[in-house]
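The material for today's practical consists of a large collection of protein records. An example says more than a description, so a record of this kind follows:
***
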Amino acid sequence: MPLITYIDHKGNAFEADVPVGDSVMQGAVDNMIDGIIGQCGGACACATCHCIVEDAWFEKTGPASDEEKLMLEMSSEMQDNSRLSCQIEVTDDLDGLVVHMPQSQY
């Protein structure tokens, strides 16, 4: 299983093994990692799973879709490398992925 590192707004790192095919959001929820809420259950209908993908990983996760960008605009902390973690499907290529969680989700 790929290992994903979630970093909170204070710089604390939490690691989780996430099954291939799950979303980065589901990995956080299943491992009780604070900062990714996922209120809509992964339907790309809210922005409570906003994460900031480290630059080195952004090309592998790909850019946000137009629908995702609309949701991200609701976040006060949107950055160029922002994604909704529910829209990032975990693959073997994402082993070692690092995402940061914005302060607004705490």
Residues 14 and 57 are 17 Å apart (CA to CA). The beta strands are 3-7, 13-17, 50-53, 82-84, 98-100. The chain has one domain: 3-105.
